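Note to self: keep these together.
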Amino acid sequence: MPDQPERPRDDTSAGPGYEPADRPRRRPVEAVLFDFHGTLAQVEDPVRWVVQGAEACGVTLDRGRATVLADRLLTAGRAGGPLPTRVPAQLAEVWADRDLYPQAHRAAYTGLAATVDSGVDGLADALYQRLLGPDGWLPYADTAATLRALHSAGVPVAVVSNIGFDIRPHFAAWGLADLIGAWALSYEVGRCKPDPAIFLRACGMLRVDPERTLMVGDTPADAGAVRAGCAALVLPAADPGRANGLAAVLDLATGEPDR
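Structure:
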């Protein structure tokens, strides 16, 4: 009779805290870097964006017309997404530099909006202005609680964003600015994600070791932090005003899941 196969060892029999030798250990997290758009906040609803932009130009749009315009403007390309289906040749240079220079960012997105015949004078500029203020954005429902929990736990936080304008006033308006220890904004540091340099710069600002830092974002560019030595958590972006799964960050950074 053939020998009976040896039963797999029940790892739990070794007692609490036992981990197999080949199980990767989770690195301790002492600091967290956050992307901005799609991670901590989302741009406002497209139809509201168009209605408010038109009102700034002295024009009242009915919802039907605003919806049609919003669809066309999103196809052309909106700061905060989605990316344009095509970039006109005359905008190629400013498009390439949009996250490195404020003037290029403005020229790129007002230029894209101007390709849509809206019938509203000044709409392209008015739509861009919506992005520059906090009213044009919504922090996710779990953003404030997550940042406050990290702050209470003594975990320093930086915002790392590919962006062509200052977002500090947004956080100030939301009452969250004091929870951010550093800002690595591409147009200020001269580097864009996924370049490891922007993540290293953020770690340097916080005076933390990249090997003990977690980058949280929503795109492969955010995962570029791995090349800088950081760990990375990529969360799919949620709709405006919804929770974005940021409780997972608390579990990784503090060892205590949000409850």
